[in-house]
């Protein structure tokens, strides 16, 4: 008997989960962050699983938006947090699917006035086996599964936000880089103008006022160029943060992205984009999953009106007599019919329904607004392109005049400065075009300008990063 009890005790212990400490060491986590690189073996494995055109020669020579997105999906902390929430919801499914444990009781008694020759002991035990009724377990499981689906869709939302922030910061990085290049050229041209005017002043061919104006414009250009370099440095830090890499690792990345080829809005169908947004937007699908979870929660509360049944078989050794028995018990639903929790679940379902309608209408408005904004920005950019063409013709005319000996080099520099100013205006228009295009892609949650081969953008089934600790 003792050996049997010991075996049962060991079997019960085998099913238990032991505690594993996982302390956080700030110094180690900081060192781990600073050690991140683009040639990490875990990153390569992640890219292989989540890219349909994976090239075994990772990392690539140049990183486009897709490659940078994959790096961000692997390293960004927001996605790591969203993955853990999916794991937490999946654990909730385990909890929902567990059946209630039976219980056993043992209450020995001793009769102090028992008859001679009869054992004074009354020994016995009884079981309590609960049986859930009304499909409660099935409803709990359905609720947990819908919440897990909602968490996976929220992971997809987080992935889209990471991709959208990366694209936006990449636009700012390219705009800042080109603007800094233009201002460097402008500063050199104005420096040449100042030098020539100073020589002409010494020769009596220019006035002091002309020289002072040119020097003032050079100072203004120098200050603008300094601000542009600061803006460029900030933009680089933002891109590095968007992909979850330290600046030291991002410095080794060569970024190449077609910045100046946004699609014509005429090729973007309003109905197609709106339909894609309504069918593909992860927040809409997540809201539907959350509504289904509230449906299951309401069914669970309704099922609780029906009492669970408890079966209690037992054995008793009563002063030499062997007795077997079985009992059945159930709670009587007399004073409470679970109406309060049912009403709360109904209100929660109605609230989730209203929230879904708000998300759906918001998706329609976001798409309409983003598409209209993109069309306006694209029109302004094309108008600026026409101005650039006119400035280029003026520059060719100035160059021809200098070659004919009818003017000095200053006229060419002035024409170049005018074209640079127009190019900077066009660059700002292009930046707005790219940002509005990114907003349109985020509204539809579908790439429109950069076809992607990343599985993560099309499905919430995101592969998690390997735990290296």
Overall average pLDDT: 85
**Helix segment count?**
12
**Could you list the spans in which at least 5 consecutive residues all have pLDDT below 50?**
457-469
How many domains, in number, for the residues?
1
Shape: elongated
Number of DSSP E strands: 5
Main structural class = alpha+beta
Question: What is the CA-based Rg, rounded?
Answer: 36 Å
Helix content: 55-70%
CATH topology value: Outer membrane efflux proteins (OEP)
Strand content: 5-15%
CATH architecture: Up-down Bundle
So, the CATH homologous superfamily? Outer membrane efflux proteins (OEP)
What is the element string, with H for helices and E for strands? HHHHHEEEHHHHHEEHH
| CATH class categorisation | Mainly Alpha
- How would a crystallographer describe the biggest sheet? 5 strands, antiparallel
Q: State the separation between the terminal residues, measured CA to CA.
A: 46 Å
Structure description:
By secondary structure, the protein is of the alpha+beta class. It has one domain: Outer membrane efflux proteins (OEP) (Up-down Bundle), CATH 1.20.1600. Helix content is 65%, strand content 8%. It contains twelve helices and five strands. Strands 1, 2, 3, 4 and 5 form a five-stranded antiparallel sheet that branches. Helix 3 packs across helix 4 and helix 5 packs antiparallel against helix 6. The chain is elongated and about 140 Å long. 28% of the residues are buried.
